Amino acid sequence: MKFCSHCGAPVELTVPPGDTLPRYVCTRCAAVHYQNPRMVVGCIAEWEGRILLCRRAIEPRYGLWTLPAGFMENNETTAAAAARETLEEACAEVEIERLFALVDIPHIHQVHLFYTARLCGGRFGAGSESLESRLFAENEVPWQEMAFRSVTFALTAWFEDRRLGSFGLHTTDLRPLA
Ligand SMILES: [Zn+2]
Fold first, then answer.
1. What is the CA(26)–ligand 1 centre distance, in A?
2. CA–centroid distance, residue 58 to ligand 1 (Å)
3. Which of 49, 66, 81, 172 has the fewest beta carbons closer than 10 A?
4. 137 neighbors 66 (Cβ within 8 angstroms)
């Protein structure tokens, strides 16, 4: 951030009085511009024991596979965001079931949430951000070509829980790779 979104004057990075962290503070109107993590929300959409994955048509991680997911918008719930992203990326309508995975990724300022869902009618396609979408059984998942560690975490937990016959809530923190 370089300029104040209220008055347009330059901002400086400084610890405001009474605060503990550096913030962008306007040099003219003194507005404090807080920056907070963003939510990425998606679906583990199941159809006849297989899971819907999309191959990314955009950077980062072009050509790699992911669960349909994306940034939450203002004025929507996390569940609605998960369903919307699945419609946009995989042209698929889903019935959201439950929150399944929560992944903190502090170093990139993101929190990833994944819901379990039923793929309505088994219908899907490829949205403009996807090269293709496909349903995968566990032994078909391209584990070496996954776009994001959070997706691998959620998918692995889903197949484990299905073996156990009981779906829980799974959480983890991801740190930078050494
Ligand atoms: Zn200002």
1. 5
2. 35
3. 49
4. no
Residue 178 lies in a domain: no
Residues 31 and 111 in one domain: no
Tell me the pTM: 0.93
What digits encode the pLDDT tens for the residues 23-32?
999 999 999 9
CA 111 – ligand 1 centroid, Å: 29
Average pLDDT over residues 64-73: 98
Q: What is the mean pLDDT of residues 60-79?
A: 98
* Cα–ligand 1 centroid distance for 3 (angstroms): 8
* 67-92 CB burial, b ≥16 within 10 A, e <16: bbbbebeeeeebbebbbbbbbbbbbb
Instruction: Tell me how far the alpha carbon of residue 5 lies from the centroid of ligand 1, in angstroms.
Output: 7
Task: State the pLDDT at residue 178.
Answer: 81
